[in-house]
Specification:
The chain is an alpha+beta fold. Helix content is about 25%, strand content about 35%. It contains four helices and 20 strands.
């Protein structure tokens, strides 16, 4: 057979191809990627909630005119501290002193008339026993005596009213606290009928902070406490902190006073009130603050650094963990809230799972891994949830 025969050429090509195939090396397995991991460990975490709030004075007293007249003097320094019972204004007392003198004179006249009526009634009684006067005359004398006693009672009440009105001409502070600006000046005419506002005194050595919390969040919190997912703090009253408008934390913590029993129909929120000490008068009424309410303690919280959590196309949070045979495994998580630089995970992870937080972008599910402990920047203790 000729070397150029088609069958011979085909057989030679097949043998040559088979030899080449046997000599080609098999593809090498991809090397294991070194990744930084953290081991999920349950720990107790105090959960908090940040809510906007506004400060208000513990006690507020509007000082108003209780009698009409001309203001003669202002007896306090605007913006200063005043004591309960301290004189603040002096209203012209002359008309009320005259009214008191007149009432006392009327009382003296009534008492004098009563003496005459009493003597007349006594004589009539003696004459009646001697049958020297009629029963009608005796009854008239007795009635005059009772009328005189009534006049005395009316006169005494008039004296008391006049004394009260005269006392109202000296306007006193109803509470101790800090007084604001004066609403009237000397020479101003104030009226009892309109209860003219003179000044406002506020007690600010302690302040209330009123915040609005969603009724749904409040119900969830109560259910978590009832189910044992959260434990109450050791103290009877939950601790509250406030952040000022510049972001600084107020030095003294407050205590939760109460939650209102009525839900606001327009906002669906419940008013929560906390009490804060204010010895240095740093806080002022009407100040906008952010409150940090202590909700409870999660005794077995699972925290994962935020850098180890991404989201899929549906927006669900996901994390890569070291699975069987040191291969990458994708988990879909349920995150409740951020705590510092971590996520609080309620589903998708368990204690002991190794979550990948470094070189996360270079791996895919099923990739071989070489896990090493991750080196993360130090973060503050997870004591607050935002």
């Amino acid at each position: 057979m000729s070397l150029k025969h088609p069958l011979f050429l085909a057989a030679s090509a097949a043998l040559l191809f088979a030899g080449c195939a046997k000599q080609a090396p098999a593809p090498a397995a991809p090397p294991a990627m070194e990744v930084g991991v953290i081991t999920v460990t349950p720990r107790a975490v105090t959960l908090t909630r940040d809510l906007p709030g506004r400060t208000s004075a513990v006690r507020v007293a509007e000082v108003r005119a209780r009698v009409s007249g001309i203001v003669l003097k202002r007896l306090f320094t605007e913006g200063g501290e005043v004591k309960e019972g301290q004189a603040l204004y002096q209203i012209d007392p002359a008309p009320y002193q005259a009214a008191l003198d007149s009432a006392r004179a009327s009382l003296a006249r009534a008492e004098a008339n009563a003496v005459s009526s009493r003597l007349q009634a006594e004589r009539s009684r003696q004459l009646l026993e001697a049958k020297a006067v009629s029963q009608q005359e005796y009854d008239n004398a007795t009635a005059s005596l009772k009328a005189g006693d009534a006049e005395i009672a009316v006169a005494k009440a008039a004296v008391q009213v006049a004394e009260i009105n005269l006392g109202y001409t000296s306007v006193l502070s109803p509470i101790s606290g800090r007084i604001g600006r004066s609403e009237v000046t000397e020479g101003a005419y104030v009226q009892q009928a309109q209860a003219t506002l003179l000044a406002t005194v506020q007690q600010i050595d302690q302040l209330y902070v009123d915040v609005n919390q969603s009724s749904s969040e409040l119900l969830q919190l109560r259910q978590a406490l009832a189910n044992g997912e959260l434990k109450r703090a050791a103290t009877d009253r939950a601790s509250v902190k406030i952040l000022l408008e510049d972001g600084t934390e107020y030095a003294s913590p407050g205590v939760l006073q109460f939650a209102d029993i009525t839900v606001n129909a327009s906002t669906g929120s419940v008013v929560i009130r906390a009490l804060f000490p204010n010895p240095d008068r740093t806080l002022l009424p009407g100040l906008f603050v952010r409150t940090r309410l202590e909700e409870g303690v999660n005794p077995a919280a699972l925290l994962v650094p935020q850098q180890g959590v991404t989201r899929n196309q549906r927006g669900d949070p996901t994390a890569m963990v070291v699975g069987a045979n040191n291969t990458a495994e994708l988990r879909v998580l349920k995150t409740d809230r951020a705590i510092g630089s971590d996520w609080l995970v309620s589903a998708g992870l368990k204690a002991g799972d190794r979550v990948i937080v470094q070189n996360l972008q270079k791996i895919r599910p099923g990739s071989p891994l070489k896990p090493v402990p991750a080196t993360l920047a130090a973060s503050p203790a997870p004591a607050a949830a935002h």
